[in-house]
Structures are given as structure tokens and as C-alpha cells.
């Protein structure tokens, strides 16, 4: 199970960055698109692709022959990343907390892009308290109160997510006919006042900042579905239960916070003819996307 969670935490960074290309008035010239969230427990990894014009119906194109370099805050090159596959470039350097890094991507067919961001410090989770709410109509829920100390010296931005490991079992005549173990990203009810997007409906992630509790101890409240059920029929017995829950608390940079916040607004407005247009935030100069730092702490229930 530990290996399962490790693979999951590594993959979280790269599946969470969708290619959302905002329109800024230029319908003809494609630009480089960067998706890179870096943290201290993994080396730099950058995905490079090209945007398309508003009038172009072609799919996004991964860029395989760019030169991707990481620089320190003095402008010295730390390393040039190696191309792997599917538009991904990977390095061998592990980012250090509270250090500012610069990204430079060059390609003969595109305008060179640059970006910079820093890696925040990890936030230690002090404890987690839980209780169960029995709701026969909407389903039982697990109430979670996560306790941590917010640093006083700086403004902090957070992202919280929860995952569960679940077991499905089907038995006939004392023999197991089906068995499945899966890891599921939980939808959460964000009941705490710090969540700007409110407590309903269920959401896969919660974004918030420390405006209401800067430098203080924070008891963060949320709820997740608590699926445990079983039954019998025609000689069959089946059960589904949650074996464990892991709560992730990300201390993210301001750039990542703005990117994810605007991305949520964009997705909420997509397909709604009455919604106001949403510009997705980007900290990539001469291009699109995000290059940002995130520290992950977690707690197992």
C-alpha cells in the first residue's frame, strides 16, 4: 500500500496540470506551453507543447527538440533537462525549499520563454481527528479536522486533497469470485470558512490561503464520503469498504495558487453561455502554462 501511495503522490503533480490555453488576441502565432510543478522529493520535470491558434482545429503538439534549462537565482545554469517522451523533459536536480528557480525553454520555431518561482517550505500536519456522520439519504460521510501550524513570516497558499484505498469483494459458496483493490480521489465537502468556493457541491480539491489565520494554529474542517456497504442475494455475498484514507496538504506558491484558482473558474464557466469569460493565469513569459513550486505533506487515517 505504501508503494501505491508513493506512485500516486509522484503522479499527482503531472496529471493536475491541464492544457488550458487562454485567448489573448493573437489568432495566428502558436506559442510554447509549459506545465511544471516542482517539489523537493522529485527532480525537475517539465512538459513542453505548443499552443494552437483560435482558428486551428489540430490537436496540441508535444515538443521533442527544445532546450530546457533550469537556473538558480544568480542566473547560473544548474542543469539542462533531458528529453524522455511525450513532451516531458526530466533533470537530475532536486529543488531546495525557499530557493528561487528560473526556467528557460528555447526552440528555433518559437519565441523563447522564461519563468521563475520558488519552492515553499513543507507544512507539518500535527494531527487529524475524525468522526462519522450517518446519513441514509445522501450517504455516510467522514468528518475530518486537520490540525497544522501556519508560518507567521509569510503569506501561505494551500491545496488539500484526499485519496482512499477501497476493497470490493464478491463471494459465492465461501469462494471469492471477484476481488478488487483501487485508489480513489475523493470528492470533498469543504465545510471550513477558509474555502472560497464554499461547502457544496463536492469538490476534488480545496484551495485556500492563510488570510484568516496567518501565523496561527489552524484546525481545518472538511468531509468526504465514507463508503462501507455489504449485502447478500441468491447465494452471493458482496462488500465494499474503505481500508485507508490519506490526506494531502500542499503548501503551494502564489503562482500555482492563482493558476489553480483561475483554472477552477474557467472549468466552471466552460459551456455556460451566461458566464463571464475567464482568463487562466499563466506565469510563463512569451508563452502559456505554469512553472511553480509545491510542497506536499500527508497524513494517513
CATH hierarchy class name of the largest domain: Mainly Beta
Count the DSSP helices.
2
Structural class by secondary-structure content: mainly beta
Give the radius of gyration: 22 Å
Question: From N to C, what is the helix and strand string?
Answer: HEEEEEEEEEEEEEEEEEHE
The proportion of residues in beta strands is over 45%
Q: Which architecture name of the largest domain does CATH use?
A: Sandwich
At CATH level 3, the topology of the largest domain is Immunoglobulin-like
Poorly predicted spans: 1-27, 53-58
Tell me about this structure:
This protein starts with a helix and ends with a strand. The chain is built from two helices and 18 strands. 10% of the residues lie in helices and 47% in strands. The chain has two domains: 2-120 and 253-300, Sandwich (Immunoglobulin-like), CATH 2.60.40.10; 125-249, no CATH class. Strands 1, 2, 3, 6, 7, 12, 13, 14, 16, 17 and 18 form an eleven-stranded mixed beta sheet that branches. A four-stranded antiparallel beta sheet has the order 5-4-8-9, with no helix packed on it. The chain has helices spanning 2-15, 254-269; strands at 32-38, 45-50, 61-62, 67-71, 77-80, 82-85, 88-90, 100-107, 110-118, 125-133, 141-149, 157-172, 175-185, 206-209, 217-225, 229-233, 236-252, 288-300.
